[in-house]
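Hi C.,

You asked whether I'd gotten around to modeling the 353-residue construct. I have! Everything is below, sequence then structure, no commentary in between.
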Amino acid sequence: MKKKLIYVIVAAALVGLAGYKIASNKEKQQQEVAEVAKQVDKINVNVITVSKEEINTNYVSNGTFLPKQEINQSADISGRVVNVLVKEGSNVNAGQTLATIKRDAIEVDLTQAQNNLQNAIDDNLRYENAYKTGGVTKQQLDNSRLQLKNAQAALKAQKVRVSDTQIKAGISGTINKKMVEPGMVVSPGTALFEIVNINSLKLSVLIDESQVGKIALGQAVTINVNVLPDETFSGKITFIAPKSDSSLNFPVEIEVQNKGNLRAGMYTTATFKTNNGTETQKMLTVPAEAFVNGVSSGQLFIVNNGTAKLIKIQTGKVYGNKVQILSGLNEGEQVITSGQINLDNGSKINIIK
């Protein structure tokens, strides 16, 4: 009986110990769950501490070189090409003959026009002399003079046709492409040669409305070419559009003298000095990606006692990825730069960096 009582007491002790252990584990699990829930309730964000920094205030715009002059040279008359006198890469001068068209039939017409003119001259001379003696009327003389003028005009027209059998360069430059071969039949308006003049190049870029008032015709511009990183070129502004495009940007053209290693189509960066020649200025800035719904909204989230606070600020100029802050934000405040899409005003946050 005594032994049985001992077993009962031991069993009860074991049951009590197991119950205590279960209760202890349950309390620990509840604490862990509460801690996890507390962390889940927070939104992970990245932040930066706002401070003043030296910003390059020069305005930069990208574009592609275009030839200063470029034409597709065509024939002025129809006919069969008998000679092509240039090849791709040939340097040509304005007025130089590039190809010739068969002219046999045109020369026959020219000879006929010359004969007709000589007949008209002889006839008119007889009418002039006869009119002096009253042998013909004034009307007959006038008709004779008209026939002479028509014959002269017809001869000029045939000479023009003969000249047009020579396809001549309209500008000085380089043959970039040749689209004709001997034996081809050509017609007016069909492009036969592409001629480009790259002695100087034209760079067309877009300037923001906030900067266009700070540049002027003739102003020097620094040009950098992506494929020539070790060289810097200089250009000058030759055109500023009087009207902006739909994005409030103004087309601007810059002329660059070619030193021999530039080509049309090269991608370039133009740097405009727009701050009285000063390249840098110390200012308060934040990254453009920090703004809610874009820079134009002027809205940012800042850190406020472990929560996100939505504020409205006044922005200035945009320098690359940096946006100037004029008011509404103080140096030393922390601005949220990522995770804003998940935030509301007052959301709890967990700062990653």
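If it helps when you're writing up: The radius of gyration is 43 Å.

Thanks,
B.
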